[in-house]
Amino acid sequence: MRKIKRKAAEILQKANLKRTAGRIALLTLLLETKAPLSGPEIAEKLSDIDFNQASIYRSLASFQEAGIVHKIESGDRASRFALCACDTKGHCHPHFICNRCGRTECLGNMSMPEINSKKLANYRIEEKEFYLRGLCDRCLAKK
């Protein structure tokens, strides 16, 4: 636990962000969980510390801007946040979203498909997102 907190503090320092107790707790949670979490899920898991929901969202926005986390729009109006595992500010791997239970999972062992098209020559791509939707293993097992 202490090692993960130290790593969280180092990540914040490297990103030139203030190392507050709340931010360290938030980043520690994301490092430990290794799964995308929504704002309400984060607030629930951090309910034992003095870190309100507004501060959580402000911190997540700062983390996103610094390239520490990326935001996953799952379509259920609850954005989820996950650590960036690569050196890009955004998605570097696809995500799976279960249509039944809403479970969202980073597929970090898969790479994003490469899109090279002459039709895009006059465009500037600012963000790439790739989602796979279907039924997760848990929902399939319930059938």
Tell me what you see in this structure.
The strands form two sheets. A three-stranded antiparallel β-sheet has the order 1-3-2. It has a three-stranded mixed β-sheet with strand order 5-4-6, with no helix packed on it. The mean pLDDT is 84. It is globular. The longest helix has 13 residues, at 2-14. It contains five helices and six strands, in the order ααβααβββββα. The chain has a single domain (2-141), classed as Winged helix-like DNA-binding domain superfamily/Winged helix DNA-binding domain (Arc Repressor Mutant, subunit A, Orthogonal Bundle), CATH 1.10.10.10. With 143 residues, it is α+β, with helices and mostly antiparallel strands.
Per the CATH scheme, the topology name is Arc Repressor Mutant, subunit A
Return Rg in Å.
Answer: 17 Å
For the record, give the distance between the C-alpha atoms at the N and C termini, rounded to a whole number: 38 Å
For the record, the CATH class is Mainly Alpha
Quick one: how many beta strands?
6
